[in-house]
């Protein structure tokens, strides 16, 4: 081809390069993220997470065998030597007994992933987060770097993570998430790095990184809930490098959601959604997506054999936490913990089914909602608002049914002839009147206890209010 023919080929080449942008249904390459917090923090959360609102956390590990104190049993007994833990071991186990021996009793005799999935879905939750490994280091799958300290080689002799993944994805529409503790209390490689002020990195490439890549590539979680930085900075964990791979090249790059626990001082600062603290519920609207992870057992994330009924949140308290959390823009992650035998205790199952019953009636005021201009009412206490702007709907969720059957709300501005008010779960429209300047007075129907749409909180749906 002669020199005079080359320029004529350039437009064709340019058109070929632009073809993916010009063809219907085609788009440019997806954005790639750099291994920096500035780049990673700019990633938008996949929409499903904000729409879901409600998930279930599951803590299950060797710590459920002693079933005493909390999931920090090993640390409190061996490291801190707290008197109550030392006394418990002395009274119940022979001298020289080691924590590792508890794994023999962690059999999960009655564990059935399908049963768990059916109970979990009855709650109305849209996602589940399973602990794959807590700070004790025992993994619920056959980690290639667990040195037999896992549920396949010891205890249940099962890949718990795999069985749960299959059950959740085959029997429910819930999103499947995994919790992973970065550090391990007594891992010798971590302890050596710690002694060297984290100037060495023996532990991450030998344990943490291989585990994380294996979990993502094998089980494809849509939530990766990191925890346990061990007071090491994110540079020690190479958190930004891992997250860049997760967002750019992993099999879940388009759907995965992460939290903010990726290194010392990262919490409530960097990552996907913020958790800030355990049981975090600020009570006001935050500018960043956040999650309230809390326990039904007020004292522990793990099953306790000696827990009293008063140690558990009531269904009324759970409903209130859910309302308040969603009104302020958060997601609600409620924790349960099975026994060493793999049974979800009746108190946890009851709470799950109770909140599910509530969701069947009031889910419209929770799922897919957005925070409204006001989060709570200033006249009537314990009233929380959510909204669906596209449908021009505002929801007022209240926790006490007034004996007068009158609900006074000072935030909505109603319009005669346009505003409609109804009680979710009740088929007839409700009567209302406007207050001077702003506000609305709603007349609730006269119902017996048995006729009420639910027992532990109610939702007013208001259409066309300002």
Key terms:
4-stranded antiparallel sheet, 16% strand, 466 residues, 13 helices, signal, alpha/beta, single chain, Immunoglobulin-like, globular, EC 3.2.1.51, Alpha-L-fucosidase
SSE arrangement:
Elements: H1 6-22, H2 37-40, H3 47-52, E1 54-58, H4 73-79, H5 83-92, H6 113-121, E2 127-133, H7 160-171, E3 175-181, H8 188-195, H9 203-219, E4 223-227, H10 234-237, H11 239-248, E5 257-258, E6 290-295, H12 315-327, E7 330-336, H13 346-362, E8 383-388, E9 393-398, E10 406-409, E11 420-423, E12 431-434, E13 440-443, E14 458-463
Parallel strand pairs: 1-2, 1-7, 2-3, 3-4, 4-5, 6-7
Antiparallel strand pairs: 8-9, 9-14, 10-13, 11-14, 12-13
Helix pairs in contact: 4-5, 6-7
Describe, in plain words, how this protein is organized in 3D:
This protein is α/β, with parallel strands linked by helices and 466 residues long. It folds into two domains: 37-365, Alpha-Beta Barrel (TIM Barrel); 383-463, Sandwich (Immunoglobulin-like), CATH 2.60.40. 29% of the residues lie in helices and 16% in strands. The protein contains 13 helices and 14 strands. The strands form three sheets. The protein has a seven-stranded parallel β-sheet with strand order 5-4-3-2-1-7-6. A four-stranded antiparallel β-sheet has the order 8-9-14-11. Helix 4 crosses helix 5 (83-92). The chain is globular, with a radius of gyration of 26 Å. The relative contact order is 0.11. The record marks 293 as: May be important for catalysis. Residues 375-462 form the Alpha-L-fucosidase C-terminal domain. It comes from Vombatus ursinus (Common wombat). Its EC number is 3.2.1.51. Homotetramer.
């Amino acid at each position: 081809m002669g020199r005079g023919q080359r320029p004529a080929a350039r437009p064709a080449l340019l058109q070929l390069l632009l073809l993916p942008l010009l063809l219907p249904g085609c788009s440019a390459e997806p954005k790639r993220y750099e291994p920096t917090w500035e780049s990673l923090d700019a990633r938008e959360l996949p929409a499903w997470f904000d729409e879901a609102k409600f998930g279930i956390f599951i803590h299950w590990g060797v710590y459920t065998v002693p079933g005493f104190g909390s999931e920090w049993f090993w640390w409190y007994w061996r490291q801190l030597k707290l008197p109550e833990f030392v006394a418990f071991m002395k009274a119940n186990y022979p001298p020289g007994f080691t924590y590792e021996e508890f794994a023999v009793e962690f059999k999960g005799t009655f564990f059935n992933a399908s049963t768990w999935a059916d109970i979990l879905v009855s709650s109305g939750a849209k996602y589940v987060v399973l602990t794959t490994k807590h700070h004790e280091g025992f993994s619920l799958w056959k980690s290639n770097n667990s040195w037999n300290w896992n549920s396949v080689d010891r205890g249940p002799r099962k890949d718990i993570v795999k069985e749960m993944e299959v059950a959740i994805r085959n029997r429910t529409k819930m999103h499947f998430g995994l919790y992973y503790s970065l550090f391990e209390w007594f891992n010798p490689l971590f302890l050596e790095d710690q002694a060297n002020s984290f100037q060495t990195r023996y532990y991450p490439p030998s344990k943490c990184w291989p585990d994380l890549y294996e979990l993502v590539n094998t089980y494809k979680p849509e939530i990766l809930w990191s925890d346990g930085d061990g007071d090491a900075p994110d540079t020690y964990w190479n958190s930004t490098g891992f997250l860049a791979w997760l967002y750019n090249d992993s099999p879940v790059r388009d759907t995965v959601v992460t939290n903010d626990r990726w290194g010392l001082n990262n919490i409530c600062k960097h990552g996907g959604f913020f958790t800030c603290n355990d049981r975090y519920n600020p009570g006001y609207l935050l500018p960043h997506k956040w999650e309230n992870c809390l326990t039904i057992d007020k004292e522990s994330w793990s099953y306790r054999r000696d827990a009293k009924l008063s140690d558990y949140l009531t269904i009324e308290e759970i409903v209130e936490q859910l309302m308040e959390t969603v009104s302020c823009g958060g997601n609600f992650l409620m924790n349960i913990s099975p026994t060493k035998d793999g049974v979800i205790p009746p108190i946890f199952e009851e709470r799950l089914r109770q909140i599910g019953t509530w969701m069947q009636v009031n889910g419209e005021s929770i799922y897919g909602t957005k925070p409204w201009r006001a989060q709570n009412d200033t006249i009537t206490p314990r009233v929380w608002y959510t909204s669906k702007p596209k449908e021009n709907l505002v929801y007022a969720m209240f926790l006490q049914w007034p004996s007068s059957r009158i609900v006074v709300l000072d935030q909505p501005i109603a319009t005669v002839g346009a505003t409609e008010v109804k009680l979710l779960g009740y088929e007839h429209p409700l009567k209302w009147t406007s207050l001077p300047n702003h506000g609305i007075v709603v007349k609730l129907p006269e119902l017996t206890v048995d006729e009420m749409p639910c027992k532990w909180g109610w939702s007013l749906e208001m259409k066309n209010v300002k």
